[in-house]
Amino acid sequence: MKKFFKSVFAVLVIGAITAAAVYFTQGGDQSQRGRRWARADGPVPVVATQAKLADVPVWLEGVGSAKARNTVTVRPQVDGKILSINFKEGQEVKQGDLLAQIDPVTFQAQLDQAIAKKALDESQLANARRDLERYTQLSANVIAAKTVDTQRALVTQLEAQIKADEAAIENARAVLGYASVVAPISGRTGMRLIDVGNLVRASEGGIVVITEVQPISVLFTLPQQDLPEINRAVAKRALKVEALETDSKNVLDAGELQVIDNQVDQTTGTIRLKADFPNKELQLWPGQFVNVRLLLDTLEQVVVVPTSAVQRGPDGAFVYVVGSDNKVAVRNVAVAQQDDRLVVVSKGVTSSELVVTTGFARLKDGAEVSVSAPEDAKPAASSAAGTPQANAGKASAADTASIDAATPAVAMPLRPEGRKRGEGRRGDGKRRREAGNPPGATQ
Prior knowledge:
The structure is a single chain. This protein has 443 residues and is of the alpha+beta class. It folds into three domains: 258 residues, Elongation Factor Tu (Ef-tu), domain 3, CATH 2.40.30.170; 56 residues, CATH 2.40.50.100; 75 residues, Helix Hairpins. Strands 1, 16, 17, 18, 21 and 22 form a six-stranded mixed sheet that branches. α2 packs antiparallel against α3. The radius of gyration is 43 Å and the shape is elongated.
């Protein structure tokens, strides 16, 4: 009997413990739900920044490769033995610098022979002239007219021979000069193609290749659709071109557009262009692939907001504008241009208005918000709080730093709305400028 009561007691204790556990668990869940609902009913925390006026460059972007303005394979113009190489591989040389010396002995002998031949003919000419002078002074009864004519012809013949001798001397002197191989252009030497002691022939091989890299050219392509705007811009001014690394992070050099090709590539639908760069820092090298952007225009004092501020809905692009009452209003906007960081707004937002950039999950028209500065701007923000204008004051010097950093000089090429990078165009060129709404991703 005692065992029976002990078993019943144990069952009752276990049941009481289980009931208590269930009660406290449900109570905790209800408490957490209550706190979450309490938070949902309060101001929505968001990050916001001010729209501002800025000058925004309009770029057209393509892909190209660097090309030496001049490339010369230095070849000997005479046959002979290489006595010396007078340059180092990779050396900068000037036009006329001695590169190699071919044995000049044979060519010097030919020059000396031509000079001697001229001296001999000059002495014969002098004697023939004296004889002609004597013959002409004698009377017709003393010497026949035929003899005078023959002597006069001899003088003319020797005069022509002297001219031939002079030409032979010039030729021999030129051949002797060819024994000294000089740089035909200024530039940088490549790898040496022949060594000292080898016999060279004018019709075979070369000694070195020289490339002109300062300045240097870049050939690149752009879509044919951009050609009308490029032509209009070229008619007004010289167009700036920048060459960038393949990741488009660093500008290697800035130059100027020189040539637009006279026909479109029918296979790719692109037009070839060439720009020249001073290349003072030697950041560009012949054959190097680079990203290229052409400055087509500059939009002056336009309203810009961070790209993250522009959302997209059924009615198109819109932003959340924070009012003076700490409430947001949905504002439809017209997007003129955009890139990865900035959007140019042509209608819907004015400068100095506060737009939300982060915290869209619980936002709706008329929602109350608690505005804070972006993470990169918090160190510069003041301790003022309360109204959105106070928070805008915190952002004015630092929150808009991201906009300042992106405009005007370093703004990336603009990408048209609705087109992913590399889509919608034939060929290598990618245009980043077009009116439309941005592909905002509502968070």
